[in-house]
Design a protein that fits this description.
Length: 159
């Protein structure tokens, strides 16, 4: 199976998964508002669950947006250069993305998740391990690296 097809499947799963998380977030916040205003006993877990949903949506959504080219970019100036210079700039940017993803997201996120696991940190309301929440960081880093390799392969074929 070609590399781009694998990335397409992963990206499709990512899109569906983040959409499900968004639906969960909306339902969770709706429940929080309803219990706060219509009952005398507001729900205690909804704020924490919404925060966890938001963390996963932000990191996985950033990887999905990166693949789709929907991330914030300053390509106005890059478009002013020749194709040769443009290719070098794009390769440099992709290198920076890989370095950041490996150093900060994968290594740093893995260490953070491991530390939370080692210290047995659990959330106050839900009682789940915080390390599972932090796993969104290295997973998104792996996705950034995967999608960057795909961009590099596709772009280098066009040069």
């Amino acid at each position: 199976m070609p590399f781009s097809k694998i990335c397409n499947r992963i990206d499709y799963f990512l899109e569906v998964f983040t959409s499900i998380l968004m639906v969960g977030l909306v339902l969770d916040v709706t429940w929080q508002v309803m219990t706060r205003f219509f009952t005398s006993d507001p729900s205690s877990f909804t704020e924490e669950l919404a925060r966890f949903f938001l963390i996963w949506i932000a990191f996985l959504g950033a990887a999905h947006a990166f693949r789709k080219g929907a991330h914030l970019g300053l390509d106005y100036f890059v478009e002013k250069f020749s194709d040769k210079v443009k290719g070098k700039i794009i390769n440099l940017v992709l290198l920076f993305v890989v370095v950041f993803s490996v150093c900060i997201l994968i290594i740093g996120g893995s260490l953070l998740s491991y530390l939370a696991w080692d210290l047995e940190q659990t959330s106050a309301s839900l009682g789940v391990s915080i390390s599972f929440v932090y796993l969104a960081i290295p997973i998104s880093g792996l996705l950034f690296v995967l999608f960057t390799v795909e961009f590099f392969k596709n772009y280098s074929n066009k040069i």
